[in-house]
Write a structure and sequence with these properties.
The protein has about 290 residues and is an alpha/beta fold. Helices cover about 35% and strands about 15% of the residues.
């Protein structure tokens, strides 16, 4: 039987429920091993949980917390990358076994691999929708294939998952080649910000089951500056949520994560924005399911 973590997501508004009665399982993963610029992502999950108590139950459209939110104990991130990914995999499977949607809070982006392994084990092939300033398609970075800069390469090359990228705006030549080789569909930030959101963002034949991975640096730094590698020219708040709504419409969302918050003492704007984003994505997931 899963025991709930004492620092619950939105505990100020949502009463505690048993693990098997919750619509969402929040899974903190304080992992930080390969960050390549500013550090601090290990503190991201706890900052999001703390900030979540300042949210309201109504997200502006609906009440996603009414279905119940259970917060698992933080995943053990003390071992080698392979061990951490296995721990993430087990936590996600525990959420699925309880009948809940896994909502993972990072931590650096590399942890998403463990989630994807669990979801593929349970559901087979699914589509990945990535919000990010970066493509994360390097085969390895600074000597590691487990780098945060390589997590989407693991998705398309190792797990053979279809990928749509949203809001990217900084790349290396290897990543551009990987996009072409693996058939990655991309709606980069310059296009989205200058021309608006296209009518259809997922290609024909994209799987009905999808997973959203949201690196917070996909948003413009004016919205969320505390992240490891902030890049100007990012997505606006409502623009990002509209993209998520459009991606989920008519499909089955298996789960999502919010990663790469790097909180700074005395700077709460980004913490609250990341908590708000997490709850907004819960709302999108819940409304899509009801439709």
């Amino acid at each position: 039987m899963l025991k709930e973590y004492e620092n619950r997501f939105l505990s100020s508004e949502v009463p505690a429920v048993p693990a098997d009665k919750a619509r969402f399982h929040v899974i903190p993963v304080p992992y930080e091993a390969t960050v390549s610029y500013a550090g601090g992502t290990a503190r991201g999950p706890e900052a999001i949980l703390e900030a979540s108590d300042q949210l309201e139950l109504y997200d502006g459209t609906s009440f996603p917390g009414e279905g119940g939110i259970f917060t698992q104990h933080p995943v053990d991130c003390s071992g080698r990358p392979e061990e951490v990914m296995e721990n993430v995999r087990r936590a996600v499977l525990a959420a699925l076994d309880a009948g809940a949607m896994p909502v993972v809070l990072g931590g650096e982006h590399s942890l998403t691999y463990g989630e994807m392994v669990a979801l593929k084990e349970r559901f087979g092939t699914f589509g990945v929708v990535q919000f990010d300033a970066h493509a994360d398609l390097r085969d390895s970075y600074e000597g590691s294939r487990w780098s945060h800069a390589s997590v989407m390469r693991r998705a398309v090359a190792d797990l053979e998952l279809p990928l749509v990228q949203l809001g990217n705006r900084i790349f290396c030549s290897e990543e551009m080649a990987a996009r072409k080789k693996h058939g990655v569909v991309a709606w980069d930030a310059p296009l989205l910000c200058r021309r608006g959101i296209p009518e259809k963002i997922l290609p024909d034949g994209f799987p009905e089951n999808i997973f959203i991975t949201f690196d917070v640096d996909g948003l413009d730094p004016s919205i969320l500056p505390e992240t490891g590698t902030p890049v100007p020219g990012g997505l606006g708040w409502y623009q990002a949520l509209d993209l998520a709504e459009k991606a989920v419409a008519g499909r089955n969302l298996l789960g999502f994560d919010v990663v790469e918050l790097a909180p700074r003492e005395g700077h709460i704007v980004s913490d609250f924005a990341a908590a708000s984003l997490t709850y907004a994505l819960m709302g999108i997931a819940e409304r899509s399911r009801r439709k």
